[in-house]
TrEMBL record:
C-type lectin domain residues: 23-142
Coiled-coil annotated residue ranges, if any: none
PANTHER family noted in UniProt: MANNOSE, PHOSPHOLIPASE, LECTIN RECEPTOR RELATED
Protein name as it appears in the record: C-type lectin domain-containing protein
Organism: Magallana gigas (Pacific oyster)
Amino acid sequence: MDTLKLCLLSFLIHAGKSDLYSYGNFCLKVHYGNYDWVDARHRCQKEGGDLIQIRDSGMQQFLQRVLSGQRSEDTGFWIGASDSESESHWKWVAGDPKMTYSHWSSGQGPSQSGFLFSDGGHEDCALMKIHDGFRWHDYECSLFLYHYSFICQHDKLVHSHTHHTNGQHGSTTVFIPQTFPDTTPLSTDAPIP
């Protein structure tokens, strides 16, 4: 079965407008709506994943390609990068000590200059902005002004088995999406405990 179909099967239990994609060993789910970074991350984790971690230019270009074709009023998507632990030291939410790939806009991320009268010290969460060539920007994580759509990343589980055919040994690898523990449909207006 093709990996996109497997991703689709794993997400059928969740309601709401979203788009599903398969990239490498990941299922990607785009959630449309108005969320702060903290709520977006919580929703990804509730589904068994986390905010997307764009670790190479191939994934960045893939996202640009699929999101450019969307008819949406969205101007940005939250991604899984933060410098909340140490200012200007950006890390992926998975805890990697260093980001080896980035796509920051000038004056953003590690070289942030802040916004208006702020020094940028509270801009700890990353947003991929569509109208800036999908470059990344740092924003406050929970400010009421900053509500965007977001992208979740889920690992595909790899299941391998060996089979015998006419005395020949062989193996088949099948990608099986993760089963998510919570099957309650997500509501965009219900508070998260």
